[in-house]
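Re: that chain you flagged

S.,

Sorry for the slow reply, it's been a week of failed gels. I finally had a moment to sit down with the sequence you sent. For the record, here it is as I used it:
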Amino acid sequence: MGQESSTGTNSGSMRMPTVKYQRGDKVMGRWPGSSLYYEVKVLSFDAISQLYTVIYKDGTELELKEQDIKSVTGFQTRPRSRSRSPGRRRSRSRSPARTTRRSSSRTAAAVATAAITDSVLSTSREPKLKDTLEVRVTPLKETKAAENNSNNKHETKEENNTPVKVNEKSEEKVEADAEKIQGRYNLRRRKDDSGAKPSAVTAEQLEKEPAQVAAPSAAARSTALDFGGKIGFFSSSGAYFWLLFLPAWVLFLALQVNLEDPSLTNFPPPLPPLEAFWDTQAFGFVILWILFQVLLYILPVGKLSEGMPLRSGERLKYRTNGFFAIVMSAAAVAAAVYLGFDLTYIHSHFLQLAVASFLISVLLSIYLYVRSRYAASEQLALGGSSGNVVYDFFKGHELNPRVKNFDLKFFCEMRPGLIGWCLINFAMALAEMKRHGLDAPSYSMILVNLFQLLYVADGLWNEEAILTTMDLMHDGFGFMLAFGDLVWVPFTYTLQAYYLVHHPNPLSLPAVTVIVILKLVGFYIFRKSNSEKNAFRRNPSDPKLSHLRTIPTATGKSLLVSGWWGVVRHPNYLGDLMMALAWSLPCGFSHLLPWYYMIYFIILLVHRDSRDMSECRRKYGSAWDEYCRTVRYRIIPRVY
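Prediction finished late last night. Pasting the structure tokens below so you have them in one place:
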């Protein structure tokens, strides 16, 4: 994590313990669950937990206790062992036979060490470490296979010439060790799973011979800045841009869609007077709507679902009663209309409602960032822990902020904005009828309302599936998601319905039929592929999934290359784009504005695909390259 979360800055007037190792010191750190010691560099010391944060050669960061750290000097000053066993002999001979012996030994050590490191890293993501391997230093018999590998190009990277023997622990021993490891270590991040492994020294070697210590790797922050790094749009300076641009863009769209000629090529309309942006009644309406959704969320109705394992191994519980919430919301809206409430108020006060929602999202984001400064390091999001205040405020510093059992990110992701999207669409249909004196909405308005209602209702019916998505598993909760959930979704995804209020587009029955078929095909691909993914992520060993083909990875996980996931790498994106096209077609081709969602969605999904590619290549290495060769196309078969 960022240094701000691991240096113990909130220690107050507590007495500071003696710090044996200083920031920047090169030391030898024990690897979790083994007797291996690797060269590490000290990043910081937490005075409260009394843990050292260290970084390994491959970029992994851990928090270690002092007894798990030894000085490099202690390694180098111990006398060499005089053992004359074949595996320990240090002959200076340069004969071809001798060279082969030493090379094969290094190769065997390299292969075994790589396997051990991959095993530890993969099992560290699971609640129990059942497959952890223990390393013991013993001679290995020279084999023909080892001789065949003596020309390994990477063998010169291994500084430890002693071969190793790998013995598997019993399951009971490993489970006992797992509890001890969880309390001692905090695995933070592995920079490159496919990179060279650091040289290792076992505890037994401490008493027998020194270890060759390589030059230290540069200490990096807990995670790289996402979306382009320091010079990207979402860098520290880029975050300022997005904080200003996103609200301005929503304002521009809200003003533009209300014009008689809502062309995106027109000069932006003049700003209305300041008092036109604020309406106390509109602010109260938004607050009331959010509180109503909070009430529906906390009711003991629906299933308690478990999220995916966190870095600590914990699995949070979520109340997945979203479909109940949308049904009750629809009943409440119907009752309000029956009692005489004019829902066309939403159309006439669209701008004021958007401003009120924006203000609430800002206040929520400030609260989220302030509380994240007091959160434990394991509760922070890797992607929002750069140490830069503006970037972390925008990206989200804490992964799963909760008030007791009330999960703020999950609630905002699925409730007020998403269900509010359907409410605004319905209000636009009523506004169209009122404006044009119709007894029923137009075909175009009906299609837009039904298509988007189906999309939202399906998401809430399958609400549990969102627990395996990138937003819930990896992204912190900050301004980006708060603004997106409360402002972007309900006030930009409804532009097609808003557009049709002022610009009706008559549709023939054949056109309606084609659009409906496109929507249903896209919906089928979207739902089927997401169901396959969610089932596979939750239980890859499910007998119902035994027919699916997979590619194993070094992390212990497998990549799905069957079903829709064998056609393209993101079939859910393909279905999403087909549905987006079906939403835009009812608006016709007179203006680009109602196609805004389609254009935006293409950019969003291509960018997400790029992020996913980078992350998966880092995690899975050569297995991901094999997957890309097997499934060639990213989103659209034979196109992209």
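What I noticed first: The chain has three domains: 3-206, 227-259+277-504, 507-640.

Talk soon,
D.
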